[in-house]
Design brief:
Elements (H helix, E strand, L loop, with lengths): L3 H9 L28 E2 L6 E2 L3 E5 L8 E5 L2 E2 L3 E4 L3 E9 L16 E5 L5 E5 L11 E5 L3 E10 L2 E2 L9 E11 L4 E10 L11 E3 L3 E8 L54 H13 L4 E6 L3 H16 L4 E7 H6 L5 E2 L3 H16 L11 E2 L2 E7 L4 E2 L2 H17 L6 E5 L8 H7 L3 E3 L18 H19 L8 E2 L2 E2 L14 H4 L13 H9 L2 H4 L2 E2 L19 E6 L16 E3 L2 E5 L2 H9 L2
Parallel strand pairs: 2-8, 10-15, 16-17, 16-28, 17-18, 18-21, 19-22, 21-23, 23-24, 24-25, 26-28
Antiparallel strand pairs: 1-3, 3-6, 4-5, 4-7, 7-8, 9-10, 11-12, 11-13, 13-14, 15-27, 20-21, 29-30
Helix pairs in contact: 2-3, 5-6, 8-10
């Protein structure tokens, strides 16, 4: 908690920062690709960021016939001009029908560079919580902020951290330079009319606020033959929910309950026509990323590799894997014990296979941040084991990516769940981002008729978890991004009647009767969306004179929606039937339309 003095400090001296951006350093200089003759490319240097278009040209060699430049996995010939901004991975490969594959010992190692023609954005603001007369808040936004790249001057002079500002008029000047050499100079005149206790000094750095909408997608439906489906009677209104008959809803992979039924009927996830229609529906409703559950089941894996990914390849979508630790490593019954050598080997082997596969991490449509493949690991909070086994195992997962030419692994940990996160465990797994797959807990519900709004109770709880996770990071920890998980069906957000999801865990006594979706907006704003889009330079020491500065890890945030089509638990936003007596909760496209409205 922040006492009133510290609140005043924050309000008074938000912008006086003097920088410690030590980890923003350039990569080593030299040839773009180092190795034997024929691996060299002229025109760029390893790890550089350029403010202009670049031309890559392959160095001719008789030792490597059929060689071509490959840019982000695509063949580009022996010469290519790159003008668009972005991160690029280049390598040299020998290609041609008469050439045998090169042994790994002779392969040219990949390398990276970036093109950035946009100067940093500098903005001054005065949020509502800053009292009148206080120094403005400063935000600096750039994907490639340089080491020592931001200078803050007051009245033309640099100031020490925590130095007081006298009353009267002042000019605040910010000079921001990125690694490509793009420079922005911004000035703001303000009048200091109030003094408080010793000021805190901090600046907030933002990476570009690209926001991706992702949905968890479950490709394991076999059509109507998996089990005997008996349509349930319409639920009694508005009484306590009737328990689900065993084997009727929850005992089946399909279990549309309480009058829920997919508009497509009981479809087959191995049908190309079904999958293509689902992906087109996602695109039409603003979804950017398909998070595909992976359990290792052979028939489901066949659906993923042979049907889902080929359909994504021809569409404006990216995909990631949702690694289901519970099913894959614990037979659906966590915890996941990494003291078990068989479990460790299976986990590491899976990630080695992902990293080396053209169907997964090396696929051009697989989502990567800064040449780090993004993978969502379900229920990391349930991992157990010794410190050594936890640390070594997760180090091996990252190393699998590095061994296959990637910069690292952008591991999204499903770690937050109400009041029980283990922050030490979080550190041992070294995630690049955290989220909450399923934060809804029926025991935490607030009756619909009470004075507390249920979704706001949930949102406030999640906001606390996000902030606790941020505070738990030490100065030496890498910044962990916060990527919120949100729901429509479980919370029935924005829909106009109660829904009883998860085998009647949440009956009408916990239902959400929200008509206009305002609580959805509240949830996103409160439960970490703003925090997720901001890699803030955080914490100020109590003496007000010591500033801890953190670097943003990447320029994109993701909001994960659970789910597109998890019909077993009833959380899907996929199109439902329209309303009819047998299906009173036939919301049609309402959930997807709400998702598009709130996450454009």
């Amino acid at each position: 908690m922040v006492d009133s003095c510290r609140t005043a400090q924050r309000a008074l001296f938000l912008s006086m920062i003097f920088l410690a951006l030590g980890s923003f350093s350039a990569f080593g200089q030299g040839e773009t690709v180092q190795g034997d003759e024929g691996c060299r490319i002229r025109g760029v240097e390893r790890g550089e960021v350029y403010s202009r278009p670049v031309t890559l040209e392959l160095e001719a060699s008789l030792n490597r016939p059929g060689a071509q430049i490959f840019v982000n996995g695509q063949a580009a010939g022996s010469r290519i001009r790159i003008e668009e901004e972005g991160d690029y991975t280049v390598e040299v490969r020998s290609v041609g029908p008469l050439l045998a594959p090169e042994p790994s010992s002779r392969r040219c190692p990949p390398t990276t560079f970036s093109v950035d023609t946009t100067p940093p954005r500098v903005a001054f603001s005065r949020p509502d919580w800053i009292p009148p007369g206080a120094i403005p808040r400063v935000e600096v936004e750039d994907a490639y902020l340089a080491a020592e790249g931001v200078k803050v001057l007051l009245d033309g002079e640099p100031r020490d951290p925590g130095a007081a500002v006298g009353l009267g008029e002042h000019v605040l000047e910010v000079v921001a330079e990125d690694r490509a050499g793009n420079v922005t100079v911004a000035r703001e005149r303000f009048e200091q009319t109030a003094l408080a206790c010793k000021p805190e000094s901090w600046l907030e750095y933002r990476t570009p606020t690209t926001l991706l909408s992702a949905v968890h997608y479950f490709p394991w439906y076999p059509g109507s033959g998996e089990c005997s489906y008996v349509a349930p009677p319409p639920p009694p209104a508005p009484q306590e929910p009737t328990p689900s008959p065993a084997g009727q809803w929850c005992g089946c992979i399909w279990h549309p309950k309480g009058g829920l039924r997919p508009a497509r009927g009981f479809y087959d996830s191995g049908s190309p026509a079904v999958v293509q229609a689902q992906l087109d529906q996602m695109i039409a409703h603003g979804i950017d990323v398909v998070s595909i559950e992976w359990t290792g089941n052979p028939s489901v894996t066949s659906n993923i590799v042979n049907v889902v990914i080929p359909a994504i390849a021809s569409r404006n979508l990216k995909f990631v894997l949702l690694y289901d630790s519970s099913i894959r490593l614990a037979a659906g019954n966590p915890p996941v014990n990494l003291n078990n050598s068989v479990t460790r080997s299976k986990l590491i082997g899976d990630f080695q296979a992902f990293a080396s596969s053209a169907s997964y991490f090396k696929h051009p449509k697989y989502l990567k941040f800064g040449n780090e493949p993004v993978i969502y690991v379900f229920i990391t909070r349930a991992y157990t084991g010794s410190t050594a086994n936890l640390t070594n195992t997760f180090d091996a997962l990252r190393q699998a990516a590095i061994d296959n030419g990637f910069s690292g692994l952008y591991l999204v940990a499903d770690h937050l769940f109400w009041d029980t996160p283990d922050w030490n465990l979080m550190r041992l797994t070294h995630p690049r981002a955290m989220t909450s797959f399923a934060p809804v807990n029926p025991d935490q519900g607030v009756p619909q008729g009470s004075s507390g709004r249920p979704i706001r109770t949930w949102a406030n709880k999640m906001a606390t978890l996000y902030q606790n996770s941020r505070n738990a990071q030490t100065v030496s920890d890498p910044l962990v991004d916060l990527t919120p998980g949100v729901f429509i069906q479980w919370n029935n957000i924005g829909l106009d009647t109660d829904l009883n999801p998860f085998c009647n865990w949440d009956g009408p006594q916990y239902g959400w009767n929200l008509v206009d979706g305002t609580d959805w907006t509240y949830m996103l704003q409160t439960a970490g969306l703003n925090q997720a889009r901001v890699a803030e330079i955080h914490l100020l020491k109590p003496n007000c004179g010591e500033t801890v500065i953190r670097n943003p890890s990447n320029g994109t945030s993701i909001v994960w929606t659970y789910s597109y089509n998890e019909w077993y638990e009833g959380s899907g936003v996929e199109e439902l039937t329209s309303r009819m007596p047998a299906y009173p909760y036939g919301f049609g496209l309402q959930p997807l339309q709400l998702l598009k409205q709130k996450l454009p």
